[in-house]
Amino acid sequence: MMTRFNQLPTLKIDPTKKVIFNYKGKTYSGVEGDTIASALYANGVRIYARSLKYHRPRGLYSLDGECSNTMMEVDGIPNVRTENTLLKQGMTVKEQNVKGSAEKDMLGFLDKLDWAMPAGFYYKMMHKPARIWPIAMKQIRKTAGLGEISPDFEMPGKFDEIFPRTDVVVIGGGPAGMTAALAAAEKGLRVIIMESRPWLGGFFDYRTAEYKDGVALYQRGQDLAQQVEANENIRVLKHTAMVGAYSNCLVTGFQTGTDKDAFNERYVEIRANSVIVATGCIERPLIFDNNERPGVMQVGCALRMARNYGILPGENGIFSVGHDLGLEAAIDLFDMGMKIGCVADVREDGQDPELVLALAKRNILLLKGWVATEAHGKKQVNKVSMSSIDGMITRDFDCDVLVASAGLTPVTGPLTMAQIKLRHDDFTGFFVADEMPENTFSAGRILGINNALSIECSGTLAGIKAAKACGACDAAEVEAAEAAMKALPGPVRGSKLVTAPVKGRKSFICFDEDTTIKSVKQTIDSGFDVPELVKRYSSAGLGPGQSGIPGHNLPLYVAKYQALAGVPVKPTTVRAPIVPTFIATYAGTNHTMHKRTPIHNLQVADKGILRKIGVWERVRYFSEDYSCKKEIENVRNNVGMLDGSTLGKFRLHGPDALKALQRIYVSDMSKLKPGRVKYSAMCNDDGCVIDDGVVVMLGENDYYITTSTGRAGQTVEWFRYHTRYDGWDFSMVNITDSMGVINLSGPNARKVFEKITDEDVSNEAFPYSGFKEMLFKDVIPAKVMRLGFVGELSYEFHVASSYMTSLWQLLKEAGAEFGIQNFGVEAQNVLRMEKCHIILGQESEQRTNLLDVGLGFLWDRKKADAKTVGAVALRQAENDPSRFKLVGFKMENNGRAPRDGALVVDSKVRGYIATARDSFSLNEAVGMALVESELAKVGTRLEIYEDECGDERIYGKVVPMPFYDPDGTRMKS
Amino acid sequence: MVDIKRVSPVSFGKSPKRTEVRDNWTIAMEYDSEGQGLSIVDLSHVTRLDVQTGDLSGVTPFGVAIPEVPGQSVLKDGILINRMNGIQASVFQLPGNGADLPTDVFVTETTENTLCVAIMGKDVFSFMEKVSNLDFMDPKMTAPFLFQGPCCHVPCQIITLSKDGDKAGLILTCSRGYGKDMIHSLLDAGVEFNMKPAGEEKFSAWVASL
Q: Which of A345, A427, A774, A902 would you call most buried, defined as having the most Cβ atoms within 10 angstroms of its Cβ?
């Protein structure tokens, strides 16, 4: 293990606390605060993984997880970003995407076959002859992809979610973000600040350069961080990467938990009144040959390795940079003990004179207008070739670390995600936003400024603008902050160099996808000449780094290669999650939220088999026999109980309640009489039937309504919508969950009923379509309806949900002597189908009107059309011969029932099967189908096509409906 | 012989230390080790009413005036009234108030329609942040106030009775059918806040302290 600095004031590690972990089967140690990547580096590991396509060795590059170079398998989880993941005791770390090891990868030879894999090669090669492709595809898929996971892998850990609300959310915990947060908080606003690293400070945090008056930048960063964390109005979310930002001030992210947190990762969804984007800059990668060879790293990576993790990244460093931060880092690392062979700066001029002087004092060679052209070394850099940027003069330098960076570039992900248009600014070389969405502001280095005081001031200005957007300060305060900003240095000139003078066969613009400059040229030469197309054809930016490495270089290079002038250059689109996130984090706690009936547990205890039906979980079967033979025969011959609690239930009351009923239902609801149940249906304006149910009168202007299960949630809105201009005085209360429903059906139903009540429930006293309110056991109030959906003598008991258990037990006890049994939804489905009672949604679809399904008898044609929803359309449809008709059919030759949804065909589709079953009551297969009207005549042969039936057809014949008890004797006696 | 009783949609998976039977409800009065963390109390037995009419002005359930602005609530003498919209209010007759129910035609009893729990404790809003995106700490909202919005992705009525430190707490209702999943989700989210079931007595003491 390397010797580490342990006294630096910028350290984020505690060198006194060892953390033991396992890497490739051997025990290693890091220290508290290490990331997995820094701990491996401290243990001498330089090759972390192999690349996707060419299996090139890959190592540390950004230290912020901007690419997949250091993704590894950790505790069985593939693609863990080891630069961003803190080391924990006992972790098991493995390389990924290797055949053998990262050091000796047997697929490393693919790097030499790059000529055989040009951009988009899989689109145009191995397709002829066609039989080759399936074989080739399998091989490509075997070698492609990063990491492996078993389909039954269970993600360990606790994944949570929070949905905070705030006045201002600040993305980025650097100096601008912190001053913005402080400024907004000072106005009394609630502020949330998100920072992707586990600490605040941004690019002040690891720099020893002077801030002001002898105070170093890192000290200023620490001071600001303390102020922010001490402010009661500011909530700090550290180690929280933003993954989505939207123009309505919605910002999403994920937070990595510490040992003290109750979660491993949690999804964060922040709704704010104002957003401040203070994401700062990343380094724009310098493109030259072998620019991703282990040992090549960015300026921030090299300096942070030393300053934050106490690890000098190498002994002999060479710098090829394009900004003053590179010079500053070279000086700092030299002072910490690294030998610096040379600092090449792509800029001919414009360097900070003090930095130039400091380099000279240390005898560090500064080559202005020079750039690295090639990194040498098979698995790790050991030499670098440099040249002047015109390629005229070259020199070689030995090194074990090459610090390379073309320049700075703003982190524009949140801006592009929020649909903000970006423009390339020639002076700064940045992509900048001229217009921001309402209540969204930016601050800090993203604006192209580099002076520390300017950066802080821009944060303060953004914080005050956000406060004004929230109504917490006035325009004068904004003007004062703007004036202060103007008095400070503005944006600085940036480096525009994209590539060194190389051909680009091994110059990588995207590390994740192994996309080279040559690949981009091939793509453009193939006709895909705009960045969005280049991205898709060459795959540049499609990897897990989400364009972190190629994001801004790609459009710049595409413009440069085509010598485009006057054409707007803009970065390609990025989408959430902008940072790779575990699917488990998005899933969160992932609780299912279903409704259950009041007697759910009792039915489960009776071996009910559950199915999810809309928002409900219901019992569909009471045995593994999904034909439900026993359940059906018991209802037909004895007595059964069904839990019908999911029915929609409503109380409608008020002086104009009847008017509302008349508007919504197709029947004449004024004919409704006390003690009677009225069945009717609702249509939409097209006459299409949307629901059916019963209505009973509870008192004067007081009604009780049932609807189908699926429509319960919309019924109140439906009534309100269709009476919105009338000003009627009626009220409607959804009491679906208040009342449970038990359906007691079968020839012995009355006998069971009589045992739990003293009321006269004979056919004369309580006839079919009757309604009574009664008390069971002097305690349980019930609304009882005499119905017949399943075609037998039936009663529906509606009681308060809390009493449902008691009533269920009462009925079960009373029915014991008859052998009462449960029946489920599927048995009910067959029973009612035999009776040809329809279920909307089963025997209908969106285009089906009331007349199509044979419910025209419900429509009262004497009601004024304008007063009944759908009546006008029904009148028009009445004589339309092109409409479908619901018909009953039986299968030929005692054949089996077709599957629901099967098609009725001849030379074209003529209809479909709504419901069909093998009927135990009728001893033959029967069903209902919606067919074109010319096929609706009794005796017509129906040709039925089922999925995957090939040339086989089955046949049925249209027969009169209903199939069972056509006179209704059984349900009415 | 069937024992006639009313069953709450709420189950905490733990037996109460002391119960009381009231109107066939078995009410948990106290649990062992109710703790100092968040408390969750089953109030599903508490009488709840829907008051709905075209003109709510002058309507005074249990003698308490309905707040004028939707979202506002009032808590007085054990009666909690929440203005839902222009024509509708929800009314809670909290434990201890034994007044007769109003018999007006525009009143519908909705006790059975929802599950009802109270959640109290200083971390209640950190807890709620995990299950709802409603802004309970909005400085413009003065307790008591009503939110009609999602909790655990389910439509709820949530009445914040206090935002005040240790006294912070709220009452939550949602469709009764969601009882099992809602309580499971709330208890799971409450683990980090040491959420424990508590009895009606703790709730009554809390309300009395407001």
A: A345
